[in-house]
Design goal:
Layout (H helix, E strand, L loop, with lengths): L1 H31 L16 E4 L3 E2 L6 H15 L3 E3 L5 E18 L2 E17 L2 E8 L5 E4 L4 H32 L1
Parallel strand pairs: 1-3, 1-4, 2-4
Antiparallel strand pairs: 4-5, 5-6, 5-7
Length: 182
Amino acid sequence: MQLQITNYKLQILEKSRRYCLLLTAYCLLLTLFGCGYHMIGSTPMPFNSITIKQVQNKTYEPGLEEKLHDALSREFINQGIEVTRAGGNVEMEASVNYFELKAIGAVDDKVKEQSIIMRVHIKLVDQGKITEFKAMQSPIKITFQSTGTVSESIINKERAIEKACSEIAKEIVSRIILKYAK
């Protein structure tokens, strides 16, 4: 009797293994040969290098052009795209057209927290075809603490500006990837 129960348990275990194996194979086949869907970015972009021209700063905030250029360069490099000084497959022009600091928190008429609003226009030239992205801004709200000493507030502001530039660069590269994925 004990031997029959053990054999029965082994048969159930073997059937369970087969079902798991079949389910795994089915999921794998469905993933590989699905309905024509593919992950965005799963096909490489049709260019492998980009030239980012000098960023134009049309605001009164100094240094935005360097920070945005660095952020764009980092983001393209992270995506496996070579950034060149000249002669890239694609050429990008960028300009910072709007920059504003807004008080979002104050106590006793003293500003404690501020937000950064920054808008960028992008012009992409690929084999004579021009694509423009206007008024690009960070998809998330960038804030910083303006408490403490003046030096601490300035350091926090600079970090927030770098974060805003980084988020805008990610958004720009994402939009470019989506454009080429179509």
